[in-house]
Automatic annotation (TrEMBL):
InterPro entries (alphabetical): AAA+_ATPase (IPR003593), AAA_lid_BCS1 (IPR057495), ATPase_AAA_core (IPR003959), ATPase_AAA_CS (IPR003960), BCS1_N (IPR014851), Mitochondrial_chaperone_BCS1 (IPR050747), P-loop_NTPase (IPR027417)
Molecular function via GO: ATP binding; ATP hydrolysis activity
Listed Gene3D superfamilies: P-loop containing nucleotide triphosphate hydrolases (3.40.50.300)
Name of the protein in its database record: P-loop containing nucleoside triphosphate hydrolase protein
Source organism (scientific name): Rhodofomes roseus
Amino acid sequence: MTDDDDGIESTTSRCLSYLPKLEDTYSLWYKRRYMIVQREEKSAGFYNMRECLEISILSMDRSILQSLIDEARQSYKEAERKVVSVFSADTGSKWKLMTSRPKRPLSSIILEPGIKELLINDARDFLSSRKWYADRGIPFRRGYLLYGPPGTGKTSMIQSIAGELGLNVYIVTLSRAGMDDSSLNELISNMPNQCIALMEDIDAAITGVARDLSEPVAAEPPFLAGGSSDEKAAIAKALHNEGKRNDSQSRLSLSGLLNALDGIGAQEGRILFATTNNYQVLDPALCRPGRMDLHVEFKLASRYQAESLYKCFYMPEGPDDAADEHVDEGYESKRDSIDSDEPDSEPQSPSVSEDMPLLLLSPSASQQVTEAPRPPPFKTLQPGQRKPALPNQFLSHREALTLATRFSEAIPEGEMSMASLQGYLMRYKSRPREAVADAIAWVKKERAAKKDQK
């Protein structure tokens, strides 16, 4: 049963399958009609099995069955609109649903100004220009190459774009075992008319891809010359085994990859995203317009990104409190009442009960208790949630902006990835002030770690 009667909308999704459990019979009522559903496998020749789905409805009106299928299809599509489905290929070159992830809003992606807008606007313009491409005889394809260091937000940006455009993601793994030119062409041709094809870390994936498989192979590598016969035999055997393993893993040629991207049999309507950490090693033939039309660099975090990320973590919800000086969070009123010796009308701290005789306390002890600031009542914590430290609670908008500026000043320009900054702030998710105070020490530690790796 397919859903090919919904026009353009159906091109973004694969065909639906309604599959109850095998060998079980389900009895239910649908619109006051008794219905039985059963799915089973039947023999269809030697070594072949055919699945059969039987739906029996006690009714004189055949439209009841069509109504059931339409209702199930609509429910599936409504649930699909809330997530991004990610597909990967199995060993038989068939697309299988790998996972479904919630759509990620563009506001959660923090990049330099203009990059998000450039990508999303260009992709939207492409999807709405099918007739423009057809009138001019241009293949209806668009390719994007996102390059930069790891952890700079390339994959996150692709996930967000997929959610904004309502497209599913199909991951093409070029280094998959058994991948060759024909299987790659089959995979790409089996994609829906509108989707995102993702080739991650394409620089690493095509390292072992041969540009011309017909090139002769040297009988003896130069570094074997001059060695003993035993050494030559051992090294030659190791190279032979390595070549066999690489051949079993991937037999994809660069010409096969290029033909799959923009050859005569290449799929149209899809958006290709390729990511790389090493832009310089890519073959110029792969990067030319028509295959990778737009190249966008993702750099290491700037101070602007560090400040924006801090705001994303700690900025209070709700409207901006322009008059922060009039907001009493509990500290100032307590300090004023203590310093002015005026009676405190609020309940006493649990450490000094009203029923406790004050004469039992020594003067020094009573002075210490009186001078200690009394914390405001904490909000109810969820099970397993750690109680935040007292000095880091109740951030106002003004203080959050100040701390964000101080945090960005502690982060060097273009040295840390956004992933590392996010990992650091995750350790201080309920301690915004400590995150700023410890930032300089963390930067020194990261620099030392990078120096040791070199």
